[in-house]
Amino acid sequence: MAARKFFVGGNWKMNGDKATIDGIVGFLNASNGNPNVDIVVAPPAPYLASVKAALQHNIKVAAQNAYKVPKGAFTGEISPAMLKDLGLEWVILGHSERRHVFGETDALIADKTVHALESGLQVVFCIGEKLEEREAGKTKEVNFRQLQAIVDKKVDFSKIVIAYEPVWAIGTGKTASPEQAQEVHAWIREFLKEKVSDAVSASTRVIYGGSVTADNAAELAKKPDIDGFLVGGASLKPDFVKIINARN
Ligand code: PEP
């Protein structure tokens, strides 16, 4: 079984303008990427095409969301077909802000995942518990429920990266400790082993997200079941390059 290639995603959320995005593209290109790392950045939708055109080809571009059908009367939405048309390869689905700010359900996110995969995109599939769920001892239950929604659809896990992003750690400056993150990543791998297969459990990349910075990335990256990061705030700054290289 091939080793799981380190994966670092940058989720720019609803941030940036032409000038600041030029700056981000500039420091990313200057870094030359890293042949041992899959690097995928997710600009806001209006900038997808220009960022794709400006970035070196070894740095890929993802959308932050996409709807569950190819086209039609769905004002405000974008489709996987459109992303493919732009030459994109990735989409982030199930981000906690989509789940908890915009009320996306497990069922909708599963439908979107199936459609994105059918359309030829790869998916960064985000899961994670809220603080009150963790405090109520429901961390495993919540993450497993969110994963079960796509297991039930018999998705092709070779096209999926799972991002474990505890909601209490996203944008809060409260990173999960390497031990806390490793514990959940190991549970996710056990879940995949039981519900899907040994091969999928061993080969699927499970990345961590939640206040990752250049200062904490190296320690997190040492854990055996942490295969990379999904980075929000810190992906807008030149230090993102240190996170990309955290394992080297
Ligand atoms: C995210 O948006 O996926 C995220 C993890 O954000 P931050 O790194 O800012 O916590």
Automatic annotation (TrEMBL):
Q: What is this protein called?
A: Triosephosphate isomerase
Q: Which GO terms describe its cellular component?
A: cytosol
Substrates-to-products reaction catalysed: D-glyceraldehyde 3-phosphate = dihydroxyacetone phosphate
EC code: 5.3.1.1
A Pfam family that this protein carries is TIM
- Family in the record: Belongs to the triosephosphate isomerase family.
Subunit annotation: Homodimer.
Give the molecular function GO annotations. Answer: triose-phosphate isomerase activity
Among PROSITE patterns, the record links this protein to: TIM_1, TIM_2
